[in-house]
Automatic annotation (TrEMBL):
PANTHER family: 2,3-BISPHOSPHOGLYCERATE-INDEPENDENT PHOSPHOGLYCERATE MUTASE, 2,3-BISPHOSPHOGLYCERATE-INDEPENDENT PHOSPHOGLYCERATE MUTASE 1. Its cofactor is Mn(2+). Pathway: Carbohydrate degradation; glycolysis; pyruvate from D-glyceraldehyde 3-phosphate: step 3/5. GO terms for cellular component: cytoplasm. This is phosphoglycerate mutase (2,3-diphosphoglycerate-independent).
Length: 143
């Protein structure tokens, strides 16, 4: 087992010691090409502009979708849950659909207590599954 000191983060060169730091996570806030359809670009955002322009060397955008947060592909949209999980963990790990893909590919999904319970309970009868099917990739997928 690791000692508590093994989990200590090293000092960051851009963050001064003894100063207050704010980690601001804005669900739904995204930055992309400034065009007529970009509501963040077109809206007045003085508070955010002040934060961003006041400390440009400490303002960082992070990816909150796709493989950067443990989803199966770059085409998968992020959401609050996966973004917060990845940010809190401080590393990328498989989540949601990716975990299902891994469990199905390896066959481990059939080793779990839940699957065993269902298999044994309905061995001599019919079991009907109801689920979602969508190409959106948020609550369900086609594969």
């Amino acid at each position: 087992m690791a000692t508590p000191s093994a989990w200590k983060l090293d000092d960051h060169p851009k963050l001064p010691k003894g100063k207050t730091i704010a980690l601001i996570v804005l669900d739904g806030w995204g930055e992309s090409a400034p065009d007529q359809y970009n509501c963040i670009h077109n809206a007045p955002t003085p508070a955010m502009d002040s934060l961003k322009n006041g400390a440009p060397d400490t303002w960082t955008l992070i990816k909150a979708h796709g493989t950067a947060v443990g989803l199966p592909s770059e085409d998968d949209m992020g959401n609050s849950e996966v973004g917060h999980n990845a940010l809190g963990a401080g590393r990328i790990y498989a989540q949601g659909a990716k975990l299902c893909d891994i469990a199905l590919a390896s066959g481990k999904i059939f080793d779990g207590e839940g699957f065993k319970y269902v298999s044994e309970s309905f061995e001599k009868s019919t079991l009907h599954f109801v689920g979602l099917l969508s190409d959106g990739g948020v609550h369900s997928r086609l594969d």
